[in-house]
Amino acid sequence: MNLDIYKNLKRSNRELINLNPIQRGGILPVEAKKAIYEFWDGYSVCDFCSGRLDQINTPPVCKFLEDLAEFLNMDLARLTHGAREGKFVIMNSICKEGDYVVLDKNAHYTSYVAAERAKLNVAEVGYLEEYPTYKINLEGYKEVIDNLEDKNKSIGLILLTHVDGNFGNLNDAKKVGKIAKDKGIPFLLNCAYTVGRMPVDGKEVKADFIVASGHKSMAASGPIGVLAFNDEFSEKITKTSERFPIKEVEFLGCTSRGLPLITLMASFPYVVERVKKWSEEIEKTRYVVESLEEIGFKQLGVKPKEHDLVKFETPILDEIANRDKRRGYFFYDELKKRGIVGIKPGVTKEIKISVYGLEWEQVKYVVNSIREIVDKYA
Fold it and tell me: Which of 3, 131, 189, 344 is deepest in the core (most CB within 10 A)?
């Protein structure tokens, strides 16, 4: 074994502008970085734990969960290791084996895997339009549910991906929430790309459950997730162990603790404030789309953009890659020379980017850098 490789681990692109959509919402503010120093030892969060993570008062985990539920306008909140674990907790606790989960075709793969692990079936709601918008037919939820009911199939849960991680399409959760309420079926909203980036009101959209990602969208180091739910389902979700009565079964006693939790808490005031600036984030995103479409990029997904995650078709980059000796790696190389990372190396047919949280000066620098690269080689 060469143990030297684990010494002085460093991240090569730490100081560069990062356009990776999966990371833009997880960049830590100064307050969270300072908190890491205080709690970086293992289990330091548990200095004053009496047996339940959600009941710790020092640091104020208990109060934080109350504030988190209020922030989402839900009744209760718990921590998980990620949004995917939150989905499984819900499916495992409220559904019966063999039930159907009705979900959108843009759902994250973990929505399917969670259902499979819980021994549930899946029925998809398709597109209103495929290429180039890939817009989900939200009215199709009713049709899919009706078809299942006509076949005497039991439906345990309706799941909607608030914003998908592929095209960045924002779905009208209120519309699906109304369908769920009319049908009397519990409604789960997957907010991995929305809670922490933009305002989300659970009661307004009639959600019974919300799952969110701390490391994707709430400025936490992660892995950590949030599960918020209403009182109606609390007995099933927070059921405690017969042998260890203080421990909640669905959460295996305790979930994410240590630095993921500490950074989530330390970043919370910052996150609460930044969601108020969502309209400016959309303005920046639309500026990027308009500017890059002028040089031959084509935005996929619904227009105009209502979320910061953008997917482009980039035929102009692919054309250059076919002529450049570096092939598809030319774009990554040229961006990195200009202090920009986050685009996958070797990819030129399609790219995904986000400028969430960047200053306007940085956004314009990114756009001008891409223009400069295209002009140089095209």
Answer: 189
Q: Which of 259, 276, 160, 165 is nearest to 214 (CA)?
A: 259
How far is 207 from 233, CA to CA, in rounded Å? 12
Fold classification of 20-25+277-377 (topology level): Aspartate Aminotransferase, domain 1 (3.90.1150)
- Residue 321: in which H helix or E strand, if any? helix 315-321
**Domain map (residue ranges) of the chain:** 20-25+277-377, 30-274
Task: Tally the residues of the chain.
Answer: 378
Cis peptide before 269 (omega within 30 of 0): no
Cα–Cα distance measured from residue 136 to residue 154, given in angstroms and rounded to the nearest whole number: 23
Distances (CA, A) of 371 to 2, 315, 316: 44, 14, 11
Architecture of domain 30-274: 3-Layer(aba) Sandwich (3.40)
pTM: 0.95
Burial classification of residue 210, based on how many CB atoms lie within 10 Å of its CB (0-12 exposed, 13-18 middle, 19 or more buried):
buried
CA atoms of 261 and 42, how far apart (whole Å): 12
Alpha-carbon distance of 347 to 242, in angstroms, equals 53
Chunk the chain into consecutive blocks of 10 residues (it has 378) and report each block's average pLDDT, rounded to whole numbers: 84 85 96 93 87 91 97 98 97 98 98 98 97 98 98 98 98 98 98 98 98 97 95 96 95 91 97 98 98 98 98 96 89 96 94 98 98 93
